[in-house]
Amino acid sequence: MNMARISFPKTAKKGEVIEIRTLISHVMETGYRPDATGRVVPRDIIRRFTCRYNDTEVFRADLWQAVAANPFISFTTVATESGRLTFTWDGDNGFSHTETGDITVT
Amino acid sequence: MTRLLPLLGILLALPAPAADIPRAERRSGFDFMSAPNREMQRDDMLNPGMLWVGEGEALWNRAPDSGATACSGCHGDAKESMKGVAARYPAFSGKLDRPVSLQQRINLCRTEKQRREAFAPESRPLLALTAYVAHQSRGLPVAPPQDARLDEHRARGKALFTTPLGQLGFSCAQCHDDNWGRHLAGSPIPQAHPTGYPIYRLEWQTLGSLQRRLRNCLTGVRAEPFDWDAEEMVQLELYLMQRAEGMKLETPGVRP
Question: Among positive and negative, which fits the CA dihedral B188, B193, B196, B202?
């Protein structure tokens, strides 16, 4: 439900460097904080983010407890061919979310 | 008399309580932030509050499981029907015979029209719907209703704003009218205009309401905070919105 936002140019020239920006809704609970009753809240974080450009992985990041809630990740890649960008966030408690977007390269 | 003179000197040295902030000098909390934080609010891709706006849009269009209609069933496209609504809340409810905030108004629709339990204060769906509705007024000036039934409540809000509270005995006005622009523990003291709510506060790591922010200030002066949706909370909000009349709404605001 509108959990993530992604942004990149929908069209690019071949060989052009494009900037990709992503934002996802996630608490990124560290596992170190006690709740109001004094019990430690179990860790609940996104562990890994990947971006695939058609069949090639072009970016990957490991995330840790020190990353703030609702992580924003920005990176660049080279526009090589028209196709699909696939973004995947995986984390604790079976968390997995995927977004896709298409790019036309001329 | 000579013994009294030093005391008189101290009394004269104390700053006199300032009057209301002159209209031309009013500034949003946005202006007190660092450049990166301002950029975070300005750019919708960077602004985490937009995640709640997106969630709110989904909730707006989704029918509740009571079989009643979705918000959009009555109100249509929020981009048209909700434009300017947040700018004139809190408003007086004739039925309840008291002023209600935007969140309370949303919950009234929820319980009366959609026949579902009210969203809990500060719950995610309530914040998301409020953010979505208020976002439709972004850039519009705060326009408090000229409704005589609100006058008494606004006056009580102003009285609360200027009354010393808590063990530390500070009033809202002592910081936000008399000492804005100076620093408290390294943080700039803003003028306390409620133009960005609900706000994404970096300290909270989440979106929060004006009431949550007011509770922060109240516990800060070691006062017992008013309860969620207490009459006093709505009266304070009424006064704050009057005080910010004409300033532009920013929802969702980002604050440190």
Answer: positive
Q: In chain A, which residues have their Cβ closer than 8 Å to the Cβ of B43?
A: none
Amino acid at A95: F
Sign of the CA dihedral running B56, B57, B62, B66: positive
Q: ipTM score here?
A: 0.93
Single pTM value for the model: 0.92
Interface A-B: count of C-beta contacts within 8 A:
40
Asked whether B233 and B224 are in contact (CB, 8 A), the reply is no
Catalytic residue annotation of B: 217
State which amino acid sits at residue B28. S
Query: How many Å separate Cα B173 from the centre of its chain?
Result: 16
Cα separation, B253 vs B41, whole angstroms:
6
CA distance B230 to B215: 12
Dihedral through CA B110, CA B116, CA B117, CA B119, nearest 10? -40
Q: Does A72 touch chain B (CB under 8 A)?
A: yes
- pLDDT of B188-241, one tens digit each? 999 999 999 999 999 999 999 999 999 999 999 999 999 999 999 999 999 999
Q: Is the pLDDT of residue A22 over 60?
A: yes
Cβ-Cβ contacts under 8 Å, A7 against chain B:
45
Residue B202: both structure tokens together: 């970096």
* Residue A18 DSSP label: E
B142 CB contacts (<8 Å, ≥6 apart)?
B87, B195, B241, B244, B245, B246, B247, B248, B249
Q: Which of residues 8-47 of A touch B (CB under 8 A)?
A: 21, 23-25, 27-28
Q: What distance in Å separates residue B42's CA from the closest CA in chain A?
A: 15
**Nearest partner of A87 among A32, A48, A38, A45, judged by Cα:** A48
In terms of DSSP bridges, do strands B183-184 and B98-100 run parallel, antiparallel, or are they unpaired? Answer: unpaired
Report the candidate in A47, A46, A53, A106 with the shortest Cα–Cα distance to residue A76: A53
Q: What is the pLDDT of residues B146-178, one digit of tens each?
A: 999 999 999 999 999 999 999 999 999 999 999
CB of A7 less than 8 A from some CB of B: yes
